[in-house]
Amino acid sequence: QMQLQESGPALVKPSETLSLTCTVSGGSISTTNYYWGWIRQSPGKGLEWIGSIYYSGTTYYTPSLKSRVTISVDTSKNEFSLNLRSLTAADTAVYYCGRHWANVVQGTTFSTTWFDPWGQGRLVTVSS
Amino acid sequence: EIVLTQSPATLSVSPGERATLSCRASQSISGNLAWYQQKPGQAPRLLIFGTSTRATGIPARFSGTRSGTEFTLTINGLQSEDFALYYCQQYHEWPPMHTFGQGTKLEMK
User: Fold this and answer.
1) Average pLDDT estimate for A80-109
2) Quick one: which of A125, A27, A18, A3 has its CA closest to A81?
3) List of chain B residues whose C-beta atoms are within 8 Å of the C-beta of residue A63
4) For position B93, what pLDDT does the model report?
């Protein structure tokens, strides 16, 4: 059974960079037709998709965060990571990682879908 | 960006009865909608994808339907473990722009 586990700091200062890692167990992150994504949940904004990555390194980001986000993958460690720069209090949230199926044909992605499974979540507070 | 509007915000239903939750999309998303259940302190759990296909292990009392841009999650014979938050998510847009509804809290009456 596949499991995802987020790790990283619980407290980060404003203007700094948040780095979170999602470790995948029970399956390979290099499996074709699966993307790996980050979603966050804050009281003010509900669930918000941040971005997703394929094992090949192809990424997609939500437009509102694109300028501050980088998602990367390390297939040798079976993990992927989130970097979110220039933090403010509005970035305080529970950060989840998740897997979603994608329609990928000959290296071209045509669609991505629902998230399953999800990690348990990591509460990150941005405060000085 | 496609906006999903869930209603009601809170739904009070007695155990054993039926709960009907709504999710309306701001434009056509075909059947590209999923439903999730979230309990306090837990991650969302996939219930339904493709409007009406139950995820592995999800009981048959959960069902999903669609009429145009209006999607409905129905839970028949509510069990105590069903009282939770429910979210819908669309995955129609390309490039991807996954959006979620704001959630419906299903509480025990």
Assistant:
1) 94
2) A18
3) 97
4) 87
